[in-house]
Amino acid sequence: MILRYGPPLIGTLMLLFAISHVVKRASSSQEGRTDPPGPLPERTITDLLAAIGAVEPATETIQMGTAVGGIVNEVAVRVGDTVKEGSVLARLKAGELEAEVKVNEAALESTQATLSRLRSLPRPEEIPAVEARVAEARALALDQKEQFERNGLLASRGAIGNEELRRKELGFLAATSRQRAAEADLKLLQAGAWKSDIQLQEAKVEEARAQLLAARAELDRRTVRAPRVTLPSGTTAEELTVLQVHIRPGEMASANTPLMLLGGLRRLHVRVDVDENDIGRFKPTLGGEARTRGEPVARFALSFVRVEPYLVPKSSLKGSATERVDSRVLQVIYALPEGASGLFVGQQLDVFLGSN
Question: What is the per-residue pLDDT for 3?
Answer without folding.
Answer: 54
